[in-house]
Design a protein that fits this description.
The protein is mainly alpha-helical. It folds into two domains: 83 residues; 184 residues, hpI Integrase, Chain A (Orthogonal Bundle), CATH 1.10.443. Helix content is 53%, strand content 4%. It has a three-stranded antiparallel beta sheet with strand order 1-2-3, with no helix packed on it. α2 crosses α4, α6 packs antiparallel against α8 and α6 crosses α10.
């Protein structure tokens, strides 16, 4: 059974994001290369668990983290579940596999002060890239959207008349997120500079050359600017998402409201953010967000 058939299934039937699909494909191809190189196995559809275990040992000995190994094995397990479902094989060779133990990872959010300090660095910058970078940081912090969701924003996603942004999340689930008034000015400024840029790309955020953004560029932007004001080890778009949720909850936002804003399927996913001095679940987004009008 071709890996490409499985990838088509993830794309057209499961509606996974392009980034998720790419990760699955890389994991499966990595295992296929291992099987071919070490055991002269050309396909991976019917290999025994002993061979898979050998691959896992090889990954461990390569100093790859247990978390990454578990993700790779999870990709493989999903592939075999698909083969079982389509009656290509009788049972999943990973059905009894136990995941490797991983240490519980807690992302330390940026403080409100660090967010403000970063945004203040843009005060006198009016060139396209600076305005875009400021808007990327502001939107990530003001909406809590994922990096992939930010990259996927279209020109039509922004509705200034309603002060909302339409976000397409995991499994193509759509949600509307309010835009703070403090964002509107930056959005209009960016749109003006973007029109001068003359890009034909339908994506809302673009590169200086007019192409759509790519994941490593967004990561570099966040890491570069926050490295100037923060000593935290991890500086990434996901830490801003974590900061968004933590700050809202600390200000009294309702847990269910934050769950909807983040696009989580269940409260369990959102509750990971409640360990930082939660004051109470009483207020909604516009009242709670540190950069809403009540603080201006």
């Amino acid at each position: 059974m071709s890996i490409l058939h499985f990838i088509d299934y993830l794309n057209y039937e499961k509606n996974y994001s392009p980034y998720t699909i790419t990760a699955y494909k890389k994991d499966l191809e990595s295992f296929q290369i291992f099987c071919n190189k070490k055991y002269n196995e050309k396909t991976i559809s019917k290999v025994p668990y002993t061979l898979i275990r050998s691959w896992i040992v090889d990954l461990v000995e390569s100093d790859i983290s247990n978390r990454t190994i578990n993700r790779k094995v999870s990709s493989l397990k999903s592939y075999y579940n698909y083969l079982v479902k389509t009656k290509q094989i009788g049972q999943n060779p990973l059905r009894k596999h136990q995941s490797l133990k991983v240490s519980k990872k807690v992302n330390v959010p940026f403080s409100e002060k660090e967010i403000v300090e970063v945004l203040n660095t843009f005060k006198n910058d009016n060139d396209f890239e600076s305005v875009r970078n400021k808007l990327i940081i502001e939107i990530l912090y003001s909406t809590g959207m994922r990096r992939s969701e930010l990259i996927g924003l279209k020109n039509s996603s922004i509705d200034l008349s309603q002060s909302t942004v339409k976000v397409i999340g995991k499994r193509n689930k759509e949600r509307q997120i309010p835009l703070l008034n403090s964002l509107i000015g930056t959005i209009k400024k960016y749109q003006l500079l973007k029109s001068v840029n003359g890009s034909n790309v339908d994506n809302f955020f673009i590169t200086k050359k007019g192409d759509m953004l790519y994941p490593t560029l967004v990561y570099r932007i966040i890491n570069e600017y926050f490295s100037k004001v923060s000593l935290k080890i991890k500086k990434s778009p996901h830490v801003i998402r974590h900061s968004f949720a933590t700050h809202l909850l600390n200000e009294g936002a309702d847990l269910n409201s934050v769950k909807e804003l983040l696009g989580h399927a269940s409260l369990a996913s959102t509750q990971v953010y409640t360990h930082n001095n939660l004051k109470g679940l009483k207020k909604m987004y516009n009242h709670a967000h540190p950069r809403s009008n009540k603080n201006n």
